[in-house]
Every structure is written in C-alpha cells, then in structure tokens.
Amino acid sequence: MNYLQLNDSDVQRMLNAMGVERVADLFRDIPAASRLDHPLALPGPLSEMELLADLQRLANANHGLDELTCFLGGGMYDHFIPTVVDELASQSEFVTAYTPYQAEASQGALQAFYEYQTLICLLTGMDVSNASLYEGATAAAEAVLMARAATGRKQVVVSATVHPHTRETLATYLAALPMQIVTVEAPAGVTSPEALRAHVGEQTAAVLIQTPNVFGCVERLDLLSNIAHDCGAMVIASVDPVSCGLLKTPGSLGVYIAVGDAQALGIPLSLGGPSLGFMACKREHMRRMPGRLVGATTDRSGRRAFCLTLQTREQHIRRERATSNICTNQGLCALRVAIHLSALGRGGLAQVARLCLDKAHYAAERIAGLTGFELRFAAPFFKEFVVRTTKNVDAVLGHARRRGILAGVPLGPWYPELSDCLLVAVTEKRTRDEIDRLAAALNEA
Amino acid sequence: MNATDKIAGAGLVPPEKLIFELSHPGLTAVSLADGDVPAAPPARVLPAELLAQSSPPLPEVGELDLVRHFTRLAHRLFSVDSNFYPLGSCTMKYNPKVNERAVAMPGLCHLHPLQPEADLQGILELLYHTRVFLEEIAGLAEATLQPCAGAHGEMTGVMIINAYHRHRGEDRPKILTPDSAHGTNPATCAMCGRHTSTVASGPDGRVDMADLRAKVDSSTAAMMITNPSTVGLFDPQIAEMARILHDQGALLYLDGANMNAILGITRPGDFGVDVMHFNVHKTFSTPHGCGGPGAGPVAVAEHLRPFLPGPQVVKHDDGSFGWASPGPLSIGRVRSFYGQISVLIRTYAYIRALGADGLRQVSEKAVLSANYLAALLKDHYRLPFTPPFAHEFIMVPEFREHGVTELDVAKRLIDYAIHPPTMSWPVAHCLMIEPTECESLATLDEFADAMIAIAEEAKTTPDRLHHAPLTMPVQRLDEVTAARKPDLRWNPPDEPSTQS
After folding, report:
1. Is A70 helix (H, G, I), strand (E, B) or coil?
2. What are the start-end ranges of the E strands in A262-407?
3. Do domains B98-353 and B358-482 have the same CATH topology?
4. Where are the domains of chain A?
5. Nearest by Cα to B184 from A307, A135, A318, A330
6. A161 φ, ψ to 5°?
C-alpha cells in the first residue's frame, strides 16, 4: 500500500507546468557515483490486510500484561488507565497536530499544555513546570545540567538508590563535560543523612535523590535537603508522581528542581517508552529550564490566549547558548497526563496512592511471612519493596512465570550485592486474590 | 469572560474555560474499586514528617465535563487530518490510520520492559527488523533505536564522535556546521562539550568548499550537515566534503531531517557519511502529536559500531531475539529502557507497507510536489536559489514597500485553512515550503492559489494581512507581555500568586 494521491496524469501535468521532462531530472544534483543503482533491500510492500496480519503475528508472539499478572516495577508501573484517557488523547486533531508554534491555530494544544504545567506544579509544589521532557532519566540529567549552569560548580552527588538507568544516563550526558559524579552508597536501602554529609562540599552543584527510590523506599527529603542547602548545593528530587497523592510535595521539602517519569499517569507501558519526563522548579530557575514553556497572555481583542514563551532559552533562537538542545518533546504524552490527572482529580489521586500503599503492604506482609523470604530493608516504602530469598531467584521467578505471574524484578543485574533479592511492585490494579496467588507461587517455588 | 464574549466565539469553537475553572468539589471522572486488603494507615507506615495534610488540589470534574473540555480543545487546533501543512523542514505527511491500530494491539502495547526476553519475541523481532531496515536505508553498518527524538539522536551521534576520537587518543573540540544548520546542531555540540565553527555557504546555497578547507584541521571532530540542506538543495559536493574531513581524521555527521528527499535514491553511507540520525516523525510518518513523542534512531558506519549506546536488539544464532549489553567502548545508556517503542512500531508498519519501491516513490513525489509549487509561485515570490529543489524550497515575500512581512503572509494563510510554512529561517525573511508527497494535485493548486491571492492582497489590502488571521478563535497574541511577565500556570484562588 502507499499513501499517495497523485496519478500518472497529475504527474505529467506537473512536469509540463515546470517544463521538465522526467521526474528523474529533478534529482540531477545527486552525483551518479552516489546514486543507488538497485532497489533498497527491503521486504516487499504489504496490503493493509497483510500488514495487519503481520502485526498481529508479532503481537501474538508476545506474552503481555493482557495475559499475565504483573508485579514488575523498577521504573515502569502497571497502573490503571481510564478509558477516557485513551479516547480523548487519540482524537486525531491532537495526534496529528504539529508543535504549537502558530498560536492562533493551536489554542487547543497550548491550553492543554498550560493545564499540564499547572497540574505538575500542583503535584510537586513547584512554581514552574515545562511542557515535558523525554522521560525520567533524561529529565534528571537535564536537571543536573541546570544546576551546573546555576552554580558554576563541578560535582553532582547522587545516591546509589537512584534508578541505575538514571545514573547511567547521567554519566553518559556528563561524559564530555568537566563534571564529576560522586555516588553515596546506601546499604540500608535509603540515603543516610550522615553519608550524604560526608560526600557534599563547596564544589557540589546538586544532590540528586529519588523518592520513593529504586527499592521503593521513601527517602527523608526533608533531612537530605538541609544537608545540601548547608553547602549551597541545589536539591534535585526524582519523584513517583503517584506518591504525591500521599506525601508532602518536593517543593515544600526544600527541593529546587523536581523531576520524574510520568508513565504512571496514564501512559501505556509500551515496553518502556514513550513515556514522559516532567520537570518543575522554583521560579528563580525558570529561565534556565530546558524545553518548551506555554504562557497565558491576551490576544489583540483582549481575550485570554496561550502561546509558547521564553523561547530565547531554546535552541532554535539561542543555538549554542541554549539551555538544552531539546526540540521535539513528548506532547501527546503530556496531553495524556493532563487528561489522566484531571480525570482522577484531588480525591482520585489520593485514592490511587492509598490503594497502592495498602496493597503493597499487604503483599509485603504475606511474602515476609513465607519460609525463605524476608523484607530486605526496614525503611518505609510506598508501592514497591525488596524481598530477600534463600531460594534461587531465577528459579522463583521461573516458577511464578509458569503460573502466569511476573513476580518481580531480579536485582542482581543492577546491584550484585542484592543478587538474592527481588523487587516487587503492587499497584491499585492488583487484587487480593492476585497477591495471594503470588504468595502461593513464591511459597511453592 | 462575559456573556458577550461567549456569543462572539460561539458555534463550533466556543471559548473554553481552564479545567481548573470547571472544578466542582467531590467530583471525579474515575471509578476505582474499594480496597480489598487490610488498610495500611499512612501514619503508621510512613514518616509523619513526610505525610501531606491533604492531597494536591487537582481539578474535580465529572466524566462528561472532562470529555467536553478536551474535545473542545481538540477542535481549537489545526492538524494534518484537517489541514495542509506546507511546513518546511518538518515533513508533515499523512499519518496512516493502520499504524494507530497497530500500536493499540494489546499484544504490542501492554508489555513491561523488564519482562523476560522469552515473553517479548514478537516485539523484539519487530524492533530488530526496524533496526535492519534503517541500516539499509542509511547504507550504514548498524543503528540504535534508543534516542527519543532528532535532537537526542544528534546528541547520541556527537557522543559517539567524541568517544571515537577519545579512543584514538585525541581530543578534538571543534565541530563544523554550515550557516544554514538547524539550531539543534550547535546546541547539541555545546551540550556535548564541543564548540561549533560555522562554514559559509556560497550564493548558490551550497557549502563554500574553500571555507570548509580553511576550517578543517586536526582539532576538527566532525562536520554536521543536513543534505539535502535546509534551503532545499542537494549539495553535490557532499562526497568531496567527506573526503576533506576524512583526510584530516574528522567525521561526517548527517542530520537526517531531510531524508524524505532521497529514500531509495541515494544513501548517506554511499556519499561518505559516518553517522546520522533519522527523524521517524518526519520521514516515516509517525504522528507529531502536538510536539512529540518522536524518535531519533542513529545509524553509524563500521568504524563507529563499538561506540553505539546499549542495550542493542539482536538476533541470536538460534533465530530468537534478545537484548545485547553494550561493549566496553560504548558511550553507555542515553535514556531508560529501550526507546520510543510505540513510535518505532509505526515506523516498522510504514516501511513494511511501502517496501523499497514505495519509499522511492515517496521521495519522487515529495520532490516533484515541491518543485511544482516553486514553479507556480516563482513569479509571485522571489526564489533565492535555482531549481531543481529537493523536497522543500525557500521563497521570499517582497512586499516591504507595503509594510507586509513574511509573518503577515504566513498568518494570512491560516485564514485559507492552511498551516503557515516555516518562517524567517534559514534565510532572512523567507518562507520554507515543504508539501510532502501526500497531497493531491487539487490541494497543491489550492495552496498555490492562496499564496498568489495573498501576494495580491499584500499590495492592495495590506491591512488585512496585518490583522490576519481573522477566522481563528483568537487573533494575534501579545507575545511580548507573555515573555516579560510570564504566566506559566493557573493559581488556586486561595493560594498566593507565584507570578512576578
């Protein structure tokens, strides 16, 4: 199939209008030596029926969460997505619109992004949110670059409880810059204030903390922030937005830049992407923010209207002095988050957070009561926790999988010292029966 | 808003309140089951110092008001499904509906990235083939699907370039860009600790080879170039540029923004490119979604393979598919997990649907359509460069004596239900026109007629252009105030304003 609408006589008419004999003549600037003299080696074209059959074959070769019970987390979570989110976000005007540079013809997207920015500010207790970044890890890296620019300092202190993908991405981003990463080990599963104090200094641009952290444990942002402030470092917190339904906002706990991955807010898992990286900050750092910002203003007749603003921060204006190179962001994902949070509302978000807390603690209690299993860390947790087992981790996971259960993420690949541990996530979607079946499967393994 | 304003904007696109202004206490549009496990009281299981007194003041609306709100917002929006976008450098082609069906298939959508590979054989196969297709289209040795967007692909590419030189024991701080480069190019170089040096273009829009020769030296890491260039010309000197760079140990980076002009006709690897990124949301028809998500896969020549980010999707000897960890020279991870998977599913579906011949036809029709429009408009707007053009071209409205700028022309086009072209870049006061291959001859002719009518209006009724657009829900905006006194969020009435 193709998606063209010019027939042979159209082509002829167009060539005649130009006084050009053949379409090939339009490509004469491409030197013969560089021209392909054979077709690309690609499989032949498919009709729509054949394409759908091929895609269905590939879909059938997967075993997804439509058939398995998921206790996997580790950065991506199986939260419920209300039907309205899918339906509203798939309206083709939203799907097929360009970036809203032309404000008059883009008010719908601009207003939605202004609402998104407000929702993220309300969630994080911050003054200013941008209109989205790619995903959580790159958002954290961008925040570190912001702190570097704001402080002129050359070191970032990162807790070992920050997701390894975030730390690896940060290391990649900083590889060619004069910026050192210092890691604070956290043997107790949370960042200890004393350990942090021993690692920060007057060269520390920022302290990066994730809460709830990669182990699901809730970090003492209040205490950690104070330590960072004492040496003039900025605090960057990567937060699970669902936990904001229960916990104090990062903004109220001394955080300068709040970032995180918003996949949990209405974005399908889709093998880990696309999701959305949110970023919100205190007003004094607004002009250092990367990415697009939507502002409210008025039109000529005084009506409220929205436009992209503070564009002198951005690459298409400022070029090498831009705050970031980001251009395309995650527009449609930001729309999904805006719809999802609006659908939940104040009460809905709190209810989801409470259900996660209740079910995770029920699951933790059930599993910790089994012979050969215990909770690895004593620190408080939200919707995810680490279990240590005397059994073989792979055998346990394999046994549960044969029962249709994805029991957890093995931690050995990320933390060799935790190779006898599993990371178990429990969202509001999991039922008591499913949790009981998980416990039974672990017990049998 | 007062009652008169409401009437003024009534009809299909009435003014729409903010979602926060629709909030009514106690409402929600979500129905959740009650808890079926014993409660874990937050005060018992979480530190009191961290517990919020109340949850964030999110808007409270019922399902119908939520649906109406976001449906009305959708209607206040131009889109490819409703409007022609001759938007240069952005390749706003039709986004096939079947691709949306594909990404909604439960077996392709509800997949957790940390599931065992055995559960993921279908999606891994799809990603592996997508990777191989892109390698073939690029004429390069290996591609990575990780980068999230074009600019992220550029960054990945420059990091690979850095790693390559570092591995050879060299620190090469300089990257060359032509004066017509996308803004992302110099911004990317800065983020990667490199500085840029600009190479001039000649009056014919092509790279000034003497200037290039003068600027390439042993401190040059690479040149980043878009070819066909942002002025819509394929630079025939490209292979010579590659030779000059390679002779000095430097690399050639291709910004793949304009791949829509050369699919199946020539391949970057065949004209000397070492590393490039694709913008699949341009070339391979994945939707722009009001500004993302896109994807920016990067392809490299053989000598750069060891530096690619990981993990990489691979086909094992037994025919199964999996993830391979990156080797010791890899630049590392550039994001969490694996990539913009649902965007890549659409890429796969598009390439499979079209095949080699279909892709070649895409470029032929895209180039034909651009050149056709240039021919129709050349007597009404100044063309600074000589055809043939690639898939886009630059033209300059010259109505300064009537006080009419390129912005006025572009804004007036909105009243003709056509999205404005790219403006004022890369040539001062220009419009950059890219029709793509998808439009019918009738649409192309309507666009040309509209541009000719606007050229006439510019001379006879210039004020109409100054006030355009006149048919939208809002008129031109006060963008100066928006930037001077930024209002970037709504504030709850009972909370202090954070506006300055």
Report:
1. strand
2. 277-281, 294-298, 304-308, 373-375, 384-389, 405-406
3. no
4. 69-73+346-444, 83-340
5. A318
6. -90, 0
pLDDT score for B6: 52
Is the CB of A58 less than 8 angstroms away from the CB of B78? no
Whole-angstrom Cα distance, residue B466 to residue B48? 60
Q: Using 50, 70 and 90 to split pLDDT, how confident is the model at B493? A: confident
Residue B495 pLDDT > 60: no
Tokens for B289? 């979604």
Q: What are phi and psi of B345, to 5 degrees?
A: -65, -40
* Positions in chain A short of pLDDT 70: none
Nearest residue to A64 via CA among B105, B336, B126, B345: B105
In whole angstroms, what is the distance from residue B296 CA to residue B282 CA?
A: 10
Which overall architecture, per CATH, does domain B358-482 show? Alpha-Beta Complex (3.90)
The whole-number average pLDDT for the span B128-135 is: 98
Q: Which chain A residues are closer than 8 Å to B234 by Cβ?
A: 27, 29-30
Asked if B168 and B189 touch (Cβ cutoff 8 Å), the reply is no
Chain A neighbors of B88, CB-CB under 8 A: none
Q: Which fold has domain A83-340?
A: Aspartate Aminotransferase; domain 2 (3.40.640)
Amino acid letter, residue A194? E
Of A97, A98, A117, A95, the C-alpha closest to A309 is: A117
Class (C level, CATH) for A69-73+346-444: alpha beta
Is the confidence metric ipTM above 0.95 for this complex?
Answer: yes
Q: Which pair of tokens denotes residue A263? A: 């996949």
Cα gap A212→B113, rounded to integer Å: 20
pLDDT above 80: residue B421: yes
Does the domain formed by B98-353 have CATH 3.40.640.10?
Answer: yes
- Kindly report the average pLDDT of chain B as a whole number: 95
CB contact under 8 A, B57 and A103: no
What are the domain boundaries of chain B? 98-353, 358-482
Residues of B within 8 A of A342 (CB-CB) are: 19, 29, 58-59, 61, 66, 69
